[in-house]
Amino acid sequence: MRDGQRVAVVGAGGFVGQAVLNLLQEQGVHAVAVVRGDPAIADRSGFHRVVPTLGALAGAQVDALLNLAYPTRGEAETHRSQTEQLFADIGRAVVPGGRVIHASTLAVFGLALDRVVDVGPVRRQRDVPYVEAKIAAEHAAARIQSRGGLSLDIVRLGNVTGRSSPIWAQQFVHRLLTGRPVGVRGVTGVSNATDVANAASYLTWLLLGSPQTGIRYHHLAEFSAAPWSSWIDPMASVLGVEPVLAERGGPQPLSVRDELSRAFAGFGPRRVYRTLRRERVMGSWMRSLRAHTPYRLVPRSASADMVFAPPVSYARGEQDFLATMAAQQEFRSVTDPRWTPSIDLPESVNRLVEWLAQDWRLPAR
Amino acid sequence: MIDIGLIGCGRVVHENYAPTLVGRTEYRVRYVFDRDERQALSAAAIFGAESVSLERLLATADAVVVATPPSTHVELVERCLEQRVKIILCEKPFAPSFAAAADLVRRAEERGVGLYVGHLRRSFPHLRLARSLVSLGSIGAPRAFVASEGGRFRWESVSDYTGSSETGGVLWDTGSHTLDTALFVAGLDEPQVEGVKVVCVDRDQPEPSHHFSGDFVLDLGDSEVEGRLHLSRREALPNVVRIVGSRGEVSLSVRPDDRVRLTTDRGTVVLSAGIACGGILQHLDVQFRRVLLQQDAGDFDAKRFVGQTRVLEALSNA
Question: Could you identify which of A76, A158, B128, B180 might form a hypothetical disulfide with A129, taking C-beta atoms 3.0 to 4.6 angstroms apart as the criterion?
Fold first, then answer.
């Protein structure tokens, strides 16, 4: 990193963003942290400059920018337009020839990683809103790169686990404690995981590196081949419980038909919407439904021959989770060979176990 | 029809109260008051209510809901008591000190006023199941508990009290919920906590803190219970409550659920309350019904939150 280089982290309030801010601070790098909410929460030491939006930079451009943000608010069908706006702001915030690191996700190949994984551009797919938005973000990043002559690195992160992971660590504790399944019996899935410490390390390393030309794609999942049980079993040991596994055959491949027939049987537009927003029929089709026939289509189904489907073993959210636990396709790391992970698998497990143990141990007088 | 007067028209009112207080047949929000006129008018439009002065609201409402920042609770509840409002439901955290909480409870009892505190988690099926297990003696006498709750803080209050008021930090704001979960399940909300010995405290900054942990000992007169509270607005924490007794333990999530784990010398088992848990709004709805219609409202009686206030005050001052 050259002296005087100005860096920004967009979406710095999240799990990875907080880890990146800490690493930058350790290296003495002051960043502009774009984060919603209270600055004191986002940056406990006041080391960085916290702003609520990129617009708050007021024309003061940065040399390098890491984007971790993605739309989480508003109706799902607005996420694509929010993404376009976000990247338009990013394009204005970076100096010509500057560097943009965009953190994406393995989910651009499907939530259950059921599409062919390729280290390169991914074409638009009709999918659930989250996946559509993530793919759209990669395309939007590529557009601002070509317009602004920027250096662009798109880093697709694996499942970001580790100490304090709100998605994985908290969920594993909850499931283990309440006897809910954490895997499928007889199926050893690959975790496709990256520890937050390594994810932050790699993103920071790229952010502070020298700009290059064009677009580079990276996949980061240094523990991709490790099964989820590598983390889950030690956590179960701390809690003194046996992990529960779903019987094989319970979680089915994602299918909308049964759930749609249930939703339409109730005629409720909100219910239909809630069902569809988790489906790959979302996207343009769903936008059209809401824009043109929000309340007319559903009542028309009243006369249709809809019957309740036989009950499925698991609710949709449960199926999605178990599909991830049982994933068979490995999302292998493809990273810059000059970078090495900061922690190995045993250390990742240790950190997670200690995180749990500190709040499970009884007070010692 | 019970006419409710709503004091404070901030975000919780617009996001959570609106879906739960509109369209009810037994009660309605008839009057609203907020120092911020825009907020008051907005809430009035939602509820079909009148935006009125505080004096008129107190003089005419059958029941008053206090949904203002915590630092204003004592003064507003006092005003309600002076006007002899029949039912007062104050949002959590109840009061900033043990003395203030105890005084309000005493005065309410003297006047025959129903004074309640909004702790909607007491309607969660798994909390009620866990409390029953403890009260039935399944784990013996409680002797220690640990409780954690943390995650990215996304609540943006209109008044910004969560970042500016001493009682707006994670200890009072989230911790009042977390601590109450432990005390309610352990049955420690009924015998009054007679004293609190703070063993150690770690916080990121003076209140309002955003990250807090503390070990303490509750003096129950004839016994002691050790406790630990770990709270964060930055870091995801395990979000569990574990209560250990002389013969076993119960553990549960701090989030809405129907399941509880019971562990004794015979082994460990997950028990279900047998009813779907539902979401936060459903439990807020239940809380309003129980308090406003005076049906099984005892769980929300303000006197059962005085001990909690003593603990929070001790930790806050440590």
Answer: A76
CA of A95, closest CA in chain B: separation in Å? 31
Q: Which of A131, A89, A332, A122 is nearest to A215 (CA)?
A: A122
My answer on whether omega of the bond before B93 falls inside 30° of 0, hence cis, is yes
Tell me the CATH number at B185. Answer: 3.30.360.10
The residue from B88, B120, B152 where one domain ends is: B120
The model carries a pTM of: 0.88
For the record, the structure tokens of A209 come out as 């590196």
Contacts of A180 in chain B (CB under 8 A): 259
DSSP character string of A290-354: HHH-TTTHHHHGGGS---PPPPPSS-HHHHHHHHHHT--S----B--TT---SS-HHHHHHHHHH
**CA dist., res. A9 & res. B229, Å (int):** 32
Binary contact (B199, A363; C-beta < 8 A)? yes
Query: What SS3 class is residue A17?
Result: helix
Instruction: List the single residue in B with minimal CA-CA distance to A169.
Output: B238
Q: Which phi and psi angles does A269 have, rounded to 5°?
A: -55, -40
- What digits encode the pLDDT tens for the residues A168-220? 999 999 999 999 999 988 888 999 999 999 999 999 999 999 878 889 999 99
From the number of C-beta atoms within 10 Å of its C-beta (0-12, 13-18, 19+), residue A337 rates as exposed
C-alpha separations of A88 from A16, A54, B312 in Å:
23, 10, 47
Q: How high is the ipTM of this complex? A: 0.93
